[in-house]
Amino acid sequence: MPRDNKTALIQKIAKQAYTTFRGLQSSANGDVKVVEDKLNGLISLVTAVRASDVKIAPRKTNSSSGAAELQSPPVTYMHICETEVFSMGVFLLRSGASIPLHDHPGMNGMLKVLYGKVNVRCFDKLEQNLAVTTVPPVFDPPVPPLQMTSVWRAVLRSVVEYSENSGPCLLTPVRDNLHQIYAVDGPAAFLDILAPPYNSDDGRDCHYYKVLQSALEDETDAKGHQEQQGEKGKEEEVWLLEIPQPEDFWCGGESYPGPAVSV
């Protein structure tokens, strides 16, 4: 077979991500137009990536529901690369799995589906925390008084389904920064780019949340109403409670089988 000297697409994405987000970090003293052009270039590259570019294939849904499957993680992660500027890897979700609602403090990000379909619900906080002058509704079930400092006003920005033919889902420090991701109709995988990476020492730790329901709402009807509103592009105010990592969610690790990446 003839030797392929072309640069792998995933390598091009890594280099473009590094230059894009390094420029974004210093954009206050740089040319904003240049940064926008680099970001558009990155979006174009990420839009083109497919599962074959990272040497993975769609996984079959396991028909068995034995103890082994119950003990395996609902989500696994393939680490590709990480620098002080960005991190990149692949998340793989089992059929029916979800990544709970979580945030990305001070971070930009891109999510690009490689196979399957995912439903992404995007939120943003409306203020730093529950202000003393803000009177929240009565929640059902009630929120203990000591937890009220962990309640946040927020807005549901959108509810969108993505497939491998979709462009990337984007997040910024101020827009669509919180999201919840569901695998739809089978297993799914997506490329994930975060800039800068999570780092608790720098105040970028991952926090989890759940959407609270008021005593006047029925949970099922409320969720359906939120999705309907999100799909129409209408934003809806909600209340979030910061919670520990859910017990039924954990993320395993897998070896990355794709082309080597260096930045």
UniProtKB/TrEMBL annotation:
This is 2-aminoethanethiol dioxygenase. Keywords: Dioxygenase, Iron, Metal-binding, Oxidoreductase. The gene is ado. One of its GO terms (cellular component) is mitochondrion. GO terms for molecular function: metal ion binding; oxidoreductase activity, acting on single donors with incorporation of molecular oxygen, incorporation of two atoms of oxygen. The keyword Hydrolase does not apply. It comes from Pundamilia nyererei.
